Amino acid sequence: MALDSKVPKGPIKDKWTDYKNHINLVNPANKRHIDVIVVGTGLAGGSASATLAELGYNVKAFAYQDSPRRAHSIAAQGGINAAKNYQGDGDSTYRLFYDTVKGGDYRSREANVYRLAEVSANIIDQCVAQGVPFARDYGGLLDNRSFGGVLVSRTFYAKGQTGQQLLLGAYSAMNRQIARGKIEMFNRHEMLDVVIVDGKARGIIARNLVTGEIERHSAHAVVIASGGYGNVYFLSTNAMGSNVTAGWKIHKKGAYFANPCYTQIHPTCIPRSGDYQSKLTLMSESLRNDGRIWVPNNLEDVKAIKEGTKKPTDLTEDQRDYFLERRYPAFGNLVPRDVASRAAKERCDAGYGVNATGEAVYLDFAASFERYGKEQAKIHNIENPSAAKIKELGQEIVKAKYGNLFQMYEKIIDQNPYETPMMIYPAVHYTMGGVWVDYNLMTTIPGCYAIGEANFSDHGANRLGASALMQGLADGYFVLPYTIGDYLADDIRTGKIATDTPEFDAAEKDVTERIEFFINNKGTHSVDYYHKKLGKIMWDKCGMSRSAEGLNEAIEEISALRKDFWQNVNVPGTATEYNEQLAKAGRVADFLELGELFAKDALEREESAGGHFREEHQTEDGEAKRLKEFQFVSAWEYKGEPKDAILHKEPLEYENIEVKERSYK
């Protein structure tokens, strides 16, 4: 199958408008005869479900959580980007487009990214209308802050809980359609296969996670909005239930999987505390607006801090290395995530890590307390304020901006970040790879779409902060509702899709046999035993930096681990009850296959680009070295074993941006 991105012709600023002017539409009276399945109800799935139902389609929405409010989108903290130029600092649609392509190391599809930037402003208006409580400035206008990799303030936010507030907006829109009967909501259901009829996606097989019942659901189109696969590493910032299963099932039925090795390492996470930890916690990148990142200049001070004979606050300015400000003066602490993560790892690898494991740097707000405090003292006409008063006033401002994040940090670490610097370290976060989609967001399976983090299209080799929420809502509210109509226009006379067909029989049989295997296989190891082993291989050899030697080892080790899993995994309980271990077994089985393809993709891509850092390909000063011959999307076709996957390449053409050395210095 030849890859056709279906990008419209013409100038980039006109592509989306001209496309919408010429696509097929579905008559409002005909939409009520068309069914759409949406798998996942986070920001992408929730906004898509609400909008499609509002348009008149019959939507079946599936969530493995007990409510769409539990989707992992709720965990996003720092904000959402939009090119509205409220600050008057020179922002524009083009600049957001440029920053996103450059931030992704010139490995994203130009037309998709421009469309994302173009519709971004509409998202904010939509969410304000829904009642999302964005922060406002003194005059009542929506406030903005900066994120890494940009020179403007374009990030709209609601304290440190932006994802939660945006999700509640989408959820309220969904609830309105559920009440009208246009959305049929299936909570505690997991999609376990897609059903293909005459070459088109026509339904799914789902399992009721409470009763264990296997169900058949048909539709004229299937939309996958199930998020990313960061939990292939076991330890990540993702919710523990986040998984790749929906995306992997459609991959095995013909949907190409693109750039699986593109994983984002977030620089601002709470460091791990030991080998028995089950997940990691994110500290919003927005903290880098006001926090300065540093380590001690001298190894003697590092040793003293670890031994407890010195506190970080004892070190004077000249005893500190603000390494991001030193190495990247133009962007300082607001360099992109991949750059900040590698810089922190480099300092820790050199022995300057400040916690017991040697895997932590400081994020310090003392300078901000002083800066804001002096400003507040002037505003309130306080003459000759004491240092303590300045600090108090400054802390109140920081508390108003980030208070819930500081509270969360203190509860986890048991240290007061107002009095001592936070400790942070990079961790696996978002995944830029995902199911390959064309300009319409359709996969290589006709009638099967992938939106949000589940697809690959917008972020290249590194996602800029605050762009995940932007992409999820752009896809769901403003892109898919147009593009899916173009496809569904041919289905207005199709009628209901029957579920008593050989295709549904075969898919249900495959799902049932797999479940029966897990229940009946009396192995010796738990599911988590295998997941932790996989995660260690992935982190050690496919993590922040990679080498050909390590990747070859990873492929062999994951293959052997997968073989052992199918022989020796043990799943307690039965298939006819709520059985979280059974659900987890299926997800880890998919992670084991994905992990091997991940390593294969990383081995194939012999360059450093964004979050994908190959030790063999770096500049003299340790920066990522991109190579011209890898200016393509890696789209993998399933052929049974991951080692047999076939690589298809989508060339990436840049007509509106000059591809040059990516520098933040």
Automatic annotation (TrEMBL):
**GO function term, MF aspect, one:** electron transfer activity
The secretion signal range is none
Q: Note the SUPFAM superfamilies from the entry.
A: FAD/NAD(P)-binding domain, Succinate dehydrogenase/fumarate reductase flavoprotein C-terminal domain, Succinate dehydrogenase/fumarate reductase flavoprotein, catalytic domain
Positions of the Fumarate reductase/succinate dehydrogenase flavoprotein-like C-terminal domain: 531-664
Cofactor(s) listed: FAD
Q: Is Electron transport one of the keywords?
A: yes
Main location per UniProt?
membrane
Give GO BP annotations, semicolon-separated: anaerobic respiration
Q: Which reaction does it catalyse?
A: a quinone + succinate = fumarate + a quinol
- The FAD-dependent oxidoreductase 2 FAD-binding domain is annotated at 35-469
Q: Give Gene Ontology CC terms.
A: plasma membrane
Q: How does it sit in the membrane?
A: Peripheral membrane protein
One Pfam family of this chain: Succ_DH_flav_C
Q: Which domain of life is it from?
A: Bacteria
Q: What is this protein called?
A: succinate dehydrogenase
